Amino acid sequence: MIKVGIIGVGTVGASVANILEENCDLITARAGKEIKVVKGVVSNLSKKRDVNIPLSSDVNDVLDDPEIDIVVELMGGVEKPYSVVKTALANKKAVVTANKALLAYHRYDLQEIAGDIPIGYEASVAGGIPIINALKVGLSANQITDIKGIMNGTCNYMLTKMMNEGVDYAEILQEAQDLGYAEADPTFDVGGFDAAHKLLILASIAYGIDAKPEDILIEGIENINQDDISFAKEFGYAIKLLAIAKKIDTDISLRVHPVLIKTEKMIAKIDGVMNGVSVIGDKVGETLYYGPGAGGDATASAVISDIIEIVRAGQSSPMLGFKKPFNSENLKLASKESINSEYYLRMQVDDKPGVLAKIAMILGDYDISIDTFLQRPAAQNSVATLLCATHNCLEKNIQNAIKTIEDLDIIKTNVTMIRIEG
Amino acid sequence: MIKVGIIGVGTVGASVANILEENCDLITARAGKEIKVVKGVVSNLSKKRDVNIPLSSDVNDVLDDPEIDIVVELMGGVEKPYSVVKTALANKKAVVTANKALLAYHRYDLQEIAGDIPIGYEASVAGGIPIINALKVGLSANQITDIKGIMNGTCNYMLTKMMNEGVDYAEILQEAQDLGYAEADPTFDVGGFDAAHKLLILASIAYGIDAKPEDILIEGIENINQDDISFAKEFGYAIKLLAIAKKIDTDISLRVHPVLIKTEKMIAKIDGVMNGVSVIGDKVGETLYYGPGAGGDATASAVISDIIEIVRAGQSSPMLGFKKPFNSENLKLASKESINSEYYLRMQVDDKPGVLAKIAMILGDYDISIDTFLQRPAAQNSVATLLCATHNCLEKNIQNAIKTIEDLDIIKTNVTMIRIEG
Fold first, then answer.
1. Which candidate from A133, A208, A284 shows the least CB-CB separation from B298?
2. Least CA distance to A294: which residue of chain B?
3. Quick check: A125 and A202 in contact, CB under 8 A?
């Protein structure tokens, strides 16, 4: 029998313990051995929890228990779980974690510390979707050229509702908070940071590239409004928060931001709280993985798949997918300014003669040519909303053009820019 | 260095050899060792092939070569590759195969013969999509309740074209043949047999259930016409050839047939030659896997992923996903008659009074109630087309009702029935 200790018995931890009990026969047949949760650690022992396992409030009751083979870390946070996981590894226990923040900062340290001791983290990205395994194993013959992930269910739920029901951002955020999809402080989700953590994990498996959240471009969905939604609808786009990795020669561009993307693309069809990750490999072409990105049982499904894999054979593939360092291509993180994209711009301007000409001239000065232009009639105060989409241009140029436009006294608010994903 | 021999160097075999060469540095880093194809076997040595490997026409040049670690079987057929794979295993060589027909008939024999010697077969189902690995590893915590697969690109291409362009079956079949998507004898694809082979492989991993193609319901797309397509469009359905596995209590229903399925379902959105597999697990809910189901490089991507996994760690999970027999639920194959579904019927009838009443009465006699009814105006010869969709009923009842209706002298052609997937 394989004995498991869970540190952090919240929704996911309780699901892990309960599923291992409920599907015990099946899981034993698949793993070859019975797997049993023998101890759980919680911070607050007096809170009632729906599990049949002995609970303790001391992590050392799991970490120092010589009977425990596998430690499941579900604490949340970064430095405290890092220390817990290091102790577990020092005590020769395999580790399974769902903690994307921990991995966003410490995945390479952990890989080195672990050596041959297995660390599973399928649950850290896109919940129940086995995307880690797909990248590490299923697509291992490929140079990965593109990853496009909808990996934050809160944002996708909000954007889908804004698109389908014409609801405003503030209203839908309140609704998401009432439903428990968004936290009281929603920044981690709506600001793109959660998706960025997940992207960094995938990028390590795809490219062997080490980067931290502060190294990459992260923009959230806070500025999207119904003007953008109606523009998107009119021109056949969905608006999605995408986590993007692109390989261009030896440059790896990693970024999280909202995009306009044509509705016929498979990734644009993923709606509501669901997650999806599209991966393009140089040989296989596009494959896409869709499913629930959160929820106790769905996340526990991924945690347990790691446990079963460890029981079956230890860790078959190396933690981050590379058995040896991969430097032959000298891959490096692209600068934020090197993005090349089409862009959508929204601005509010005085509704008077010559305004359009001024803006068009500035764009032209920065070598930006316009693909689509839409001016809505001025609603009040003689303020008109201008919406435009550009042809492909350099990020540096669009940023500079926006700064120049924002300096005009005819501009009423900041310019909102959304990248268009081709 | 790991040495590979390929038996059958056609499109896929050539891609395997070439990708291992082209992505050599990357694959070596991921696998931990260099992997090299050292020999290929072909039936016709005089045919020019686009590979840089020594070729032979004798399988024993690979099977008996003590230097070769892994044999890749890409011959096609059933009994000949079965014998080749058995010899490879007897010679302690790991095997990777893309041969779904071989596995549809001999997967349990091979698992037993192989013992601890790895057999990889990711490429046998849905080409480049790592669905085998997802089921064996990613979803291993779950009771699988449903699998719905679009796993034949030829059929999906044809049905998509019929839907989007109003093309007739015969015309689109000819086009698919001209494009090389369909064989001169297209029965294996359009008759559903190819999808059935793949379904049986997935069902073994999901349920541990042994079944052969002749044990299950297999219907093709040959009878679908533009009347069906227009009915589907009018009521919000797509028409897809689905390979279906459903677990209802201890009954496992395995079947391949066309379905009407609501266009908002993710699986209904998979168009053209692409493949997709939706899997519902009791804990994770629905996950879906999308990608290219055929093509030299896409299939080779899956073949090489198996090779890399074998090089990394041998076979980490057991061939068919179960380390021990799983009998605790006494799962058994459901009878073909036990299906419970909604049904769509198309029939051509004399356009005269009382006809509709007769048909409605027969359906009522078999306890079948009608959900939707559409009668198109008679075009010529006073023959009218009746289209109807039923509420849920037993397969036995609809089959008997169809027989009774077909015996009426007012019926001009056989009744076409398509199941509606809820």
1. A284
2. B284
3. yes
CATH architecture of the domain A2-128+297-313 equals 3-Layer(aba) Sandwich (3.40)
Burial class (CB in 10 A: 0-12, 13-18, 19+), B274: buried
Q: Which residues numbered 111-130 in B keep a CB inside 8 Å of some CB on A?
A: 122, 128-130
Pick the CATH number of A134-290 from 3.40.30.10, 3.30.360.10, 3.40.50.150, 3.40.190.10: 3.30.360.10
CA distance A58 to B182: 64
ipTM, two decimals, is 0.96
Phi, psi of B218 (to 5 degrees): -130, 115
Burial class of residue B371 in the structure, from the number of CB atoms within 10 Å of its CB (0-12 exposed, 13-18 middle, 19+ buried): middle
Q: Write down the residue that tokens 């809505």 correspond to.
A: A376
The answer to whether A338 touches A216, Cβ cutoff 8 Å, is: no
Q: What is the pLDDT of residue B4?
A: 98
With CB atoms and an 8 Å threshold, state whether B130 touches A128. Answer: no
Query: Residue A328: enclosing H or E segment and its boundaries?
Result: none
Q: What is the pLDDT of residues A104-127, one digit of tens each?
A: 999 999 999 999 999 999 999 999
CATH 3.40.50.720 in chain A, residue ranges? 2-128+297-313
Q: Distance (Å, rounded) from C-alpha A276 to C-alpha A152? A: 9
Separation of alpha carbons B133 and B246, rounded Å: 20
First to last CA, chain B: 51
Tell me whether strands B383-390 and B340-350 are parallel, antiparallel or unpaired: antiparallel
% of chain A exceeding 90 in pLDDT: 89
Cβ neighbours for B14, distance < 8 A, ≥ 6 positions apart: B49, B50, B51, B296
Cα gap B257→B261, rounded to integer Å: 12
d(C-alpha A119, C-alpha A298), whole Å: 19
What is the CATH superfamily name and number for domain A339-421? ACT domain (3.30.70.260)
Whether residue B313 is predicted with pLDDT greater than 90 in this model: the reply is no
Is the pTM here over 0.80, yes or no?
yes
Contact A98, A121 (CB under 8 A): yes
d(CA B263, CA A265): 15
Domain with CATH 3.30.360.10 in chain B: 134-292+327-333
d(CA A286, CA A278): 7
> B residues 212-251 near A, CB within 8 Å?
none
Q: Is A198 annotated as catalytic? A: yes
Looking at the complex, does the CB of residue B326 fall below 8 Å from at least one CB of chain A?
Answer: yes
* Region of residue B229 (left: phi > 0; alpha: psi -120 to 50; beta: else): alpha
Indicate whether A380 pLDDT > 90: no
